[in-house]
Amino acid sequence: MDETVKAKFDSYPAHIKPVMFNLRSLVLGVAENHELGNVEEALKWGEPSYQVKGGSPVRMNWSPKDPAHYFLYFNCNTRLVDTFREVYGHSLSLQGNRAIVLNVADPLPAAIVSHCVELAFNYKRLRHLPLLGV
Asked: How many domains, the chain?
């Protein structure tokens, strides 16, 4: 783990760390399970960021300004969140065209979030398809 990313995870309150590490594991697992190559892990805009070659990056964060939620962010210049809204709008809380909003108190909807991350990590290959090929 990159030292700046580790410092960010270490800065989260004790009850938030496992939630954020769980989301990190899910993101890294998507890349591994779908053989998408190396994941670049870095701190961007003060948030852990993950990117694979040929994909669109995803970032994650929790903030004391909204302590009940944590967020998975996507590039707002893509059709990713609009596609998530169309496909998973009944199951996910979405913020504008940039984020999945997750509740700290609820279990992570792993299958759905994994699919969203998979679409982001394959975005450059899928961007021309209606609903990104879903």
From this structure: 1
pLDDT of 18 higher than 90: yes
Residue 132, domain member (yes or no): no
Q: Are strands 99-103 and 69-74 parallel, antiparallel or unpaired?
A: antiparallel
Q: How far apart are CA 9 and CA 61, in angstroms?
A: 9
Q: Which residues pair with 93 in a beta bridge?
A: 101
- CATH number, domain of 42, equals 3.90.1150.200
Query: Average pLDDT of 120-129?
Result: 90
Residue 69, in any domain of the structure:
yes
Domain limits for position 14: 3-127
Mean pLDDT, residues 51-64 = 96
Residue 32: how many other CB atoms lie within 10 Å:
10
119, with CB counted inside 10 A (0-12, 13-18, 19+), is buried
Would you call 65 exposed, middle or buried from its count of C-beta atoms within 10 A (0-12, 13-18, 19+)? exposed
| CA-angle at 94, arms to 28 and 88, nearest 5° | 75
Q: How many CA atoms lie within 13 A of 121 on its CB side?
A: 25
